[in-house]
């Protein structure tokens, strides 16, 4: 039953993301056309911010779809890292868009063009309403999923861009001071730049198999030594991420001499999952006897196979023969 409940939530999240993507992407095209017709760079900049929203929603949707595919012999971890690669490409594209907006804004500050405040205001208000609708759709039901929370953050940022475009249109309508349009477009671009930098840093960190936040080797070693008295030492700790929500770890554990192997493996696996959100771990047990090791592979999907240590009398029997 828990599995079917989780599948139902994922289907609901997938539908919410897809509908929100259609809304944002469709109006992004309208906003670009409105910016060109009215001569407003603020609208075009807001459309650029909407592009980041649409890209984020598309990545979230693709992640849900591809996440259904099971691992195969060529990709034993599955296809979830696709979202990280797409996020990296998306961030690089955003830097290019921001650079173009900055250049265009500088040109317009020096020579302010004529701007039609009426059409600009209408398009900006419509954009605000579209973002409010998308936010309402995404906020309904399960909003704790990492992809949903990221999409909500993008839409909230775009709300600020729409408000900025409305303010610019009102100021131009009453004062005819057109430089406010490129100035506000720069402010919106800074919001895009912040999102792009965060996305670039996160995607590069995952692609370089960096240590997940809050799961450094030192933190894991200290926690295991503190909470599991059955082990003597922890070493050779490596942690990394396959995607934004999947953490992996490998480590060596030396247990107290009399403790059974399966008990140690279960205790370590439980602590890694509950305290560090590591759902897949490979644990190697280092025994005190010379040249003896017990390898344990922790895998949620099947029972664990325990390799018992080879005793010295087996070697002596072979020698006698």
Automatic annotation (TrEMBL):
It comes from the Bacteria. The keyword Iron-sulfur does not apply. Its main location: membrane. InterPro entries: Cation_efflux (IPR002524), Cation_efflux_CTD (IPR027470), Cation_efflux_CTD_sf (IPR036837), Cation_efflux_TM (IPR058533), Cation_efflux_TMD_sf (IPR027469), CDF/SLC30A (IPR050681). Keywords: Ion transport, Membrane, Transmembrane, Transmembrane helix, Transport, Zinc, Zinc transport. It is found in: Membrane. Gene3D superfamilies: Cation efflux protein transmembrane domain. The chain crosses the membrane at residues 17-37, 43-64, 84-103, 115-139, 151-174, 180-197. It holds the Pfam family Cation_efflux. Residues 17-208 form the Cation efflux protein transmembrane domain. GO terms for cellular component: plasma membrane. It is a multi-pass membrane protein. Belongs to the cation diffusion facilitator (CDF) transporter (TC 2.A.4) family. SLC30A subfamily. This is Co/Zn/Cd efflux system component. It comes from Methylophaga aminisulfidivorans MP.
């Amino acid at each position: 039953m828990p599995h079917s409940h989780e599948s139902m939530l994922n289907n609901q999240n997938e539908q919410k993301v897809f509908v929100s993507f259609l809304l944002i992407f469709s109006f992004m095209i309208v906003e670009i056309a409105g910016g060109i017709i009215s001569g407003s760079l603020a609208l075009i900049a807001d459309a650029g911010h909407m592009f980041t929203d649409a890209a984020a929603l598309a990545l979230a949707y693709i992640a849900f779809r591809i996440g259904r595919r099971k691992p195969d012999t060529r990709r034993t971890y599955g296809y979830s890292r696709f979202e990280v690669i797409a996020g990296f490409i998306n961030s690089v594209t955003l830097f290019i868009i921001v650079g173009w907006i900055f250049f265009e804004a500088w040109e317009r500050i020096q020579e302010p063009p004529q701007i039609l405040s009426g059409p600009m205001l209408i398009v900006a208000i419509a954009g605000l309403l579209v973002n409010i609708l998308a936010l309402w759709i995404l906020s309904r039901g399960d909003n704790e999923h990492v992809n949903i929370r990221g999409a909500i953050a993008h839409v909230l940022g775009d709300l600020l861009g729409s408000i900025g475009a409305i303010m610019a249109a009102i100021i131009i309508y009453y004062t005819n001071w057109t430089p406010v349009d490129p100035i506000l477009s720069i402010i919106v671009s800074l919001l895009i730049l912040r999102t792009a930098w965060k996305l670039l840093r996160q995607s590069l960190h995952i692609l370089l198999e960096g240590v997940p936040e809050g799961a450094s080797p030192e933190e894991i070693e200290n926690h295991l030594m503190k909470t599991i008295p059955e082990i003597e030492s922890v070493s050779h700790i490596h942690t990394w991420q396959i995607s934004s929500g999947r953490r992996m770890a490998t480590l060596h554990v030396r247990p107290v001499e009399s403790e059974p192997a399966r008990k140690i493996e279960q205790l370590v696996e439980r602590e890694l999952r509950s305290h560090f959100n590591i759902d897949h771990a490979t644990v190697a047990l280092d025994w005190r006897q010379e040249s003896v090791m017990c390898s344990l592979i922790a895998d949620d999907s099947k029972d664990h196979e325990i390799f018992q240590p080879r005793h010295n009398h087996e070697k002596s029997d072979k020698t006698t023969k």
